[in-house]
């Protein structure tokens, strides 16, 4: 099933996931969730040339730094949208970090995780709210 996608200017925001103010997304599928960075974040970074991925088997708390995305112009931290344990990382990103630029919501995912505190999902933004958040950021 293809999710609905909200578009704000040139940024895509799928409605089948939740978002953070720091531009991470999480897509919950039963007991497993997939996380990554948003289209907005990857466009701001531009040409992504490297990534530091989270550690498989490690638990991260909501808001904790789980990795780093490096572009030609800057380095940005990636944060845990909720408390989770890493089940799998996207190994392809080691050799193809630009997958995040090409397909941030698909092939460019960062990790598959087991959510440890499901109630934290309620604190995240739905697509509509994330679009409003981007609009505010763009206005500054």
Automatic annotation (TrEMBL):
Cofactor binding annotation: Binds 1 lipoyl cofactor covalently.
**Location of N6-lipoyllysine modifications:** 73
Q: Which gene encodes it?
A: gcvH
Q: Which cofactor does it need?
A: (R)-lipoate
Q: Give the source's domain of life in one word.
A: Archaea
Q: Domain Lipoyl-binding: where? A: 32-114
Q: How does it assemble?
A: The glycine cleavage system is composed of four proteins: P, T, L and H.
> Its family?
Belongs to the GcvH family.
Pfam families for this protein = GCV_H (PF01597)
One Gene Ontology biological process: protein lipoylation
Matching CDD domains:
GCS_H (cd06848)
List the NCBIfam families.
Answer: gcvH, PRK01202.1
Function text: The glycine cleavage system catalyzes the degradation of glycine. The H protein shuttles the methylamine group of glycine from the P protein to the T protein.
Record's GO cellular component terms = cytoplasm; glycine cleavage complex
- The name on file for this protein is Probable glycine cleavage system H protein
Which keywords, in A-to-Z order, does the entry hold? Lipoyl
Q: Which InterPro entries match?
A: Biotin_lipoyl, GCV_H, GCV_H/Fam206, GCV_H_sub, Single_hybrid_motif
